[in-house]
Amino acid sequence: MAATIPEQYRDLFTKKAFAHLGTVMSDGSPQVTPVWCDLDGNYIRINTAKGRVKDRNVRRNKKVALAILDPDNPYRYLAVRGEVEEITENGADAHIDLLAKKYLGKDKYPYRQPGEVRVIYRIRPEKVSSRG
Amino acid sequence: MAATIPEQYRDLFTKKAFAHLGTVMSDGSPQVTPVWCDLDGNYIRINTAKGRVKDRNVRRNKKVALAILDPDNPYRYLAVRGEVEEITENGADAHIDLLAKKYLGKDKYPYRQPGEVRVIYRIRPEKVSSRG
């Protein structure tokens, strides 16, 4: 299964819009956290720190979901279900700086913790719905 | 398990802030959708239409998660994991009108579909985290 991010909603990923990422805990219950994101072609990219709850969840169960609201109109949004096709540390430091630029206007990600290892999830959309 | 919505984050539920509700599909993958919400004491209330994907999910698996960002500062948020303790049609029509008042400033919910049956989920928080 594969689905395409519609052309007319790609602008959401250029705005300072948070995605809300849903993952599944080991007991089968869901977890939702706000995250920065961007697009790489048709892949949605999320950047997190290795070992966090959502990271442990995604390594166990690659199925994820997310919704992203237009900050200029919350009744316009995109909801995606998909799979994390790749988890990589390659380029993840540069990517979090890129996201800091997008969301904070800063060249370097300012919240880095000592010992933190950044990772990128590349999410392949499998089901896309939209409103507005 | 029970957790309390912290006093200093209850204001999020008086703002026009969407919650992003995470549920689990029959195949064990997550689903996330933006929803209106409010508080009733320590319960989070969501109102949806019977038969939607999230409704079918919740009737199968009562574990849910949600995150709610402060519209005035997206780096301030509350994330909750919990359980739908009650699903009821009682008072659900009045409740969706109350939410329409909060979110749209309208006395009556304007998006009602013919034949739609509204339901309230009462969510008991089990794990609460916050930032900002």
Instruction: Report the order of strands and helices of chain A.
Output: EEEEHEEHE
Shape of chain A: globular
Supply Rg of chain A. 14 Å
Helix percentage range of chain A: 10-25%
The interface involving the most residues is between: A-B, 27 and 27 residues
Strands across the major sheet of chain A, in which order?
2-1-5-6-7-4-3
CATH fold group of chain A: Pnp Oxidase, Chain A
CATH class of chain A: Mainly Beta
Q: Any idea what the CATH architecture of chain A is?
A: Roll
Number of domains of chain A: 1
Describe the overall structure:
Two copies of one chain form a homodimer. Chain A is of the alpha+beta class and 132 residues long. Helix content of chain A is 16%, strand content 46%. The first copy, chain A, is built from two helices and seven strands. Chain A has helices at 53-60, 92-104; strands at 19-24, 30-35, 37-40, 43-49, 63-70, 73-88, 118-131. A seven-stranded antiparallel β-sheet of chain A has the order 2-1-5-6-7-4-3. The longest helix of chain A has 13 residues, at 92-104. Chain A is globular and about 40 Å long. The two termini of chain A are 25 Å apart. The interface between A and B is medium-sized, with 27 and 27 residues.
